[in-house]
Design goal:
Number of helices: 12
CATH class of the largest domain: Alpha Beta
Shape: elongated
Strand order of the largest sheet: 3-2-1-4-5
Strand content: 15-25%
Largest sheet: 5 strands, mixed
Mean pLDDT: 94
CATH architecture of the largest domain: 3-Layer(aba) Sandwich
Number of domains: 2
Structural class: alpha/beta
Radius of gyration: 22 Å
Distance between the termini: 40 Å
CATH topology of the largest domain: Rossmann fold
Low-confidence stretches: 262-267
Length: 423
């Protein structure tokens, strides 16, 4: 059944190089469904924008600016890390959200993010149903961690995988050139708290044509210091150098992280960071090799200049499909990618029930990791290879990419302004 009203879009969690591609697709597709969608708004800083009644009028932006979203990294409307609590314990937040929805005639809500965003969507969808409201609430997948279930891959991951594979190969060439009299070990730290998808991508730096000694530390494989040192030592003895790709979520057998800072983020996750220098210093202490390390951090997820074309196309297609679900009155769904073939890569989009997505984490399969635990298998290569295929370069001027900053004009408030969450 068609639901008629305004559509509200929001971005959540760590942003990516292609999340704005999904935003552009949603804005474009919404214009094609006047039977269901009147105006398109965007919440400033994710769900916080809803709670604070800070809604951006997308219609105030120029067509040129909206088109430029397709090649602009980060989150054009602002993102946040904010977890909605159990509605039984924190009903006031939900009352506030639905007050804002009612005052601004929001009948479609699309939340673009990862697993915690899917949880937010599921809670809102269930609350809307409990209130007998005619509205749709759907999730648009996005996460560099690639750990959402059901979908073959997540927008944002392909471009991060491409960046890490390229960076690992290029840095390895540098180390190889200097290894005789200088650096013998290069360590690159990549994102991935519980799943080693990004770390696995580092393995693509080495192939049949470009053989590079690479050792990968996955969150899925417990870290054994002596075994790891033996592998590093052997690689240096055989090749003269080695590159180590370490996931931020690398952990010991007891489950403790190598780089746990002892703090928690807004979702209660362990605050990680600095595992690269930790591992590099272990190598210096145990083997005495000169090293260099790099922490990819924000660079890996904001690198729009080398985004994967596959990633771009999927981010756009999933945004379009999410609008189609909304226009058809379908709710509590996430458009998911279904792989049909590896080479050539073929895929389509299927609806996934949010009850099967929220709070479910997809780890890297064990058969994607070599038996020794330090590399990727051919099965992993077949999975990863098409996701980094192709380039979608942004336009350049004066040697720099042209990115857009939107005006982000807020819709006038209709509720008292005494509600404020966030800085």
């Amino acid at each position: 059944m068609t639901v008629k009203g305004n559509l509200l879009y929001a971005q959540s969690g760590g942003v990516t190089s292609v999340i704005n591609v999904s935003a552009a697709a949603i804005i474009d597709a919404s214009a094609q469904h006047p039977e269901a969608i009147d105006n398109v708004y965007a919440a400033k800083n994710g769900i916080l924008g809803v709670l604070n009644e800070e809604l951006i009028d997308v219609g105030c932006e120029s067509p040129e600016a909206l088109r430029a979203l397709r090649h602009t990294p980060s989150g054009a409307f602002g993102s946040c890390r904010y977890k909605l609590q159990d509605p039984e314990r924190q009903q006031r937040e939900f009352e506030r959200i639905f007050e804002v929805f009612e005052q601004h005639n929001i009948r479609h809500f699309l939340y673009n993010g990862g697993g915690d965003s899917a949880d937010t969507c599921l809670k809102l969808a269930l609350q809307a149903k409990a209130r007998n409201l005619e509205m749709t609430v759907n999730h648009v997948p996005k996460t560099v961690d690639n750990d959402l279930p059901i979908t073959d891959c997540c927008p944002g991951f392909g471009s991060v995988a491409k960046y890490i594979a390229i960076s690992t190969r290029e840095a390895s060439f540098d180390v190889a050139a200097m290894a005789l009299t200088s650096t013998k070990v290069f360590v690159i730290e990549v994102m991935g708290r519980h799943a080693g998808w990004i770390a696995a991508a580092g393995g693509l730096a080495s192939d049949a044509e470009t053989d590079i000694p690479i050792v990968i530390l996955f969150p899925e494989i417990p870290f054994e210091r002596q075994k790891f040192m033996e592998r590093v030592k052997t690689s240096v003895e055989q090749s003269g150098y080695v590159s180590v790709v370490v996931s931020e979520g690398a952990r010991y057998d007891d489950g403790s992280f190598l780089a746990d800072q002892g703090t928690r983020d807004a979702f209660g996750h362990a605050q990680l960071g600095g595992v690269g220098p930790v591992v590099a210093n272990m190598i210096r202490e145990d083997l005495g090799f000169k090293f260099h390390y790099a922490v990819a951090d924000y660079l890996q997820r904001s690198a729009r200049h080398i985004a994967s074309k596959t990633d771009y196309e999927q981010a756009y297609a999933l945004g379009e499909r999410a609008v189609e679900y909304a226009s058809e009155g379908r709710t509590t769904l996430m458009p998911a990618i279904r792989r049909l073939a590896d080479a050539p890569y073929e895929w389509d989009i299927v609806p996934a029930d949010l009850n099967q997505v929220a709070n479910v984490e997809k780890a890297l399969p064990r058969d994607y990791i070599t038996e020794d635990g330090y590399g990727i298998t051919e099965k992993a290569r077949r999975y990863l290879a098409p996701l980094i295929e192709g380039e979608d370069y942004p336009p350049y001027s004066n040697g720099m990419p042209n990115y857009v900053r939107l005006k982000n004009v807020l819709v006038p408030r209709k509720l008292p302004s005494d509600w404020k969450i966030g800085g």
